[in-house]
Design brief:
TIM Barrel; alpha/beta; binds phosphoenolpyruvate; 12 helices
Length: 253
């Protein structure tokens, strides 16, 4: 059965105390998660070990790095490797977020290397893709996203691709309060699945979780997640508000 995921992307937010309070609120809320439903918390690097300790014993909860480097180790001041994340028990890593692409110049080729590193060290990459507003307005979003997938992911084997989670995040909807409609999300998710099927076959494509990201809130999560090809969400702003994120977890279908 395809995995469903509510993923929190805290970005560069919260002090240590605030992070602890938010984790406590989320973890104490009762949930009805089934074995194929997961919560992934991409917290800032300094809090990863702390968050990892907090979730211990919570079977459906995982932590994630918000990035990793293209190399395992060495003289790369300020970087964090997939090997390091793996060594402290982190299960996931968000790669290719549009903010990393825009502010840190991450290219599709670089992201292929990062995905490769994550897979080498047993981390599940949450690979982000999505088009800017100009591309959406030109109506060429399908080709744009297809190219991101091809250039970063299609070098991987059938076995490897099944270990990847994809997050479709239209850039015009990230942090803007402007959500794609459920129909727009479904249309792109179906396209992503058909592109994956073209390369790896339908059976493989049907098992790859595709999350939606872009102004998901407690109030709209249920409608978006109810779409057949939407397998949960990658959530920024609303993941910093306990009540909102708890509602988003509950919206997993
Ligand atoms: C994100 O950062 O991945 C994101 C989707 O942000 P927001 O939910 O705030 O739009």
């Amino acid at each position: 059965m395809r995995q469903q995921i509510a993923a929190a992307n805290w970005k560069m937010n919260l002090t240590f105390d605030q992070a602890g309070n938010l984790l406590d609120e989320i973890l104490k809320a009762p949930n009805q998660l089934q074995p194929h439903q997961k919560v992934v918390l991409a917290v800032p690097f300094p809090y990863l070990q702390f968050a990892q300790n907090k979730i211990s014993g919570k079977v459906n909860f995982f932590t994630a790095g918000q990035n990793c480097y293209t190399k395992s180790r060495g003289a790369f001041t300020g970087e964090t490797s997939a090997e390091m994340l793996h060594s402290i028990g982190i299960g996931y890593v968000v790669l290719g977020h549009s903010e990393r692409r825009e502010y840190f110049g991450e290219s599709n080729a670089m992201l292929e290397e990062k995905v490769s590193m994550a897979l080498t060290y047993g981390l599940t990459p949450v690979f982000c893709c999505g088009e800017p507003l100009s591309v959406r307005e030109a109506g060429t979003q399908n080709a744009y996203v297809e190219q991101q997938l091809k250039e970063s992911l299609f070098g991987f084997s059938e076995e490897q691709i099944q270990k990847i989670v994809i997050a479709y995040e239209p850039i015009w909807a990230i942090g803007t309060g402007k959500t794609a409609t459920a129909a727009q999300a479904q249309e792109m998710h179906a396209h992503i699945r058909s592109v994956l099927a073209g390369q790896y076959g339908k059976a493989v494509a049907d098992e790859i979780p595709v999350l939606y990201g872009g102004s998901v809130k407690g109030s709209n999560a249920k409608e978006i997640f109810s779409q057949p090809d939407v397998d949960g969400g990658l959530v920024g702003g609303a993941s910093l508000i306990a009540a909102d994120f708890i509602q988003i977890i509950d919206a997993l279908k």
